[in-house]
Amino acid sequence: MKKNYSYLLIGLMAWACQPKETTLDYTTMSDEERLKAATEMAQNTIMVDGHVDLPYRMKVGGFTLQREILDVSVRTDGGNFDFPRSKEGGLDAPFMSIYIPAGNQQTPGASKALADSLILMTERLAETFPDKFAMAYSPADIEANFAAGKISLPMGMENGAGLEDDIANVEYFHGRGIRYITLTHGKANLIGDSSYDTVRLYNGLSEYGKQVVKEMNRVGIMVDLSHVSDDTFKDALAITPVPVIASHSSVRHFTPGFERNMSEELIQAMAKNGGVMMINFGGSFIDSAYAAGSAKVREHLVNWLAENNLSRSDSAAQAYISEYTAANNPFPTVQKVADHIDYVVNLVGVDYVGFGSDFDGVGDSLPTGLKDVSMYPNLIAELLKRGYSQEDIEKICYKNVFRVWKAVEDYAASQQ
């Protein structure tokens, strides 16, 4: 049979004329070129941050439901987050932390009342500045808000004490928009033991805590294992049929003895579960030398102020503090945060890591180059310098956490 080679030739010519995808080698770029590429990448890619403490920043600042809301639609002097800086840095979906201090656990009803109040304050942001902010209850919501140029405000409850002793509150808070719950905070609660607490009431999850995890799975709330003790972490993984998150935790390898960070064993267990670990940017989370260095600087400044009979608010004091701190900089660098991401990626792969800055929650401890939400491109540029691809960056920015979130949604839908 005679073959028609003319058709084959036409096909090959058409294939040759197709535009080819070019894979950029970011490692060969200059620092300036790489930062420009990182900034464009950040601004054109959905970026989720697992933990931003704006609601509690508003509460500490004296803003209430009765008082005018903190205007973060414009650039603010204080804090790490506002709309203009988020747009500069490419942040599209900061999880608003509905933070319940462990002290509230002493008063029945106080934790739930505070959670309700902070949720209302977050909703009020979206209602007050609807052209800039919008609530988000799913990955689909974030995608729609991103297309509209709005910053999404998904919510996570930091400290399951907000559930009080009523399992029905799990479904209640899902209805209020909560999409993850950090099981504990600084102290053991009714759910389980905390990494920060030397008292271990249950050596893991309580019986009530096991019910809470199952109910979170049923209604579609992600289980957040930041803050919990190692045993609580393992107990939760043994129960949950869906992936979990650690919304703002870093790698214990770099901070030996700091249980609040995750060990190699826990990182591997979370990856096996399909979960995602979102790296905390706070100084004490990423560099064990930071605490000692900052304490030394702080001690010097306290003594200097006393010797010169000045307060921190005096202009002369502010000038000296700024100069001395710059000369004796105790802060880690953006490279340290990249080291934590590298560690996770080298251990279990790029599919299990994300950003969980803890902006507005770790005070003046943030790394040089990552002082606020405008500076994510500095971290992305550092990752590109280390050989990460655009696809890797997209996974870290949102695809990994979206995968977990959708799995949790799908499981909950199957239970209805």
Shape: globular
Round the mean pLDDT to the nearest integer and report it.
Answer: 92
C-alpha Rg (nearest Å)? 23 Å
Summarize the biggest pleated sheet. 5 strands, parallel
The share of residues in extended strands comes to: 5-15%
Distance between the termini: 61 Å
Spatial sequence of strands, sheet with the most strands: 1-2-5-6-7
Structural class: alpha/beta
- Contiguous low-pLDDT stretches (5 residues minimum) are none
Helix content: 40-55%
Number of helices: 16
Total number of β-strand segments? 10
Order of helices and strands: HHEHHEHEHEEHEHEHEHEHHHHEHH
Describe the overall structure:
This protein has 416 residues and is α/β, with parallel strands linked by helices. It has 16 helices and ten strands. Strands 1-2-5-6-7 form a five-stranded parallel β-sheet, with helices on both faces. The longest helix is centred in the last third of the chain and has 26 residues, at 390-415. The radius of gyration is 23 Å and the shape is globular.
How would you summarize what this structure contains?
The chain has helices at 5-17, 31-44, 54-60, 83-89, 110-128, 139-147, 168-175, 207-219, 230-239, 264-273, 283-286, 288-307, 315-327, 334-348, 376-385, 390-415, and strands at 48-52, 93-99, 133-135, 151-153, 155-158, 178-182, 222-224, 245-246, 276-279, 353-355. With 416 residues, it is an alpha/beta fold.
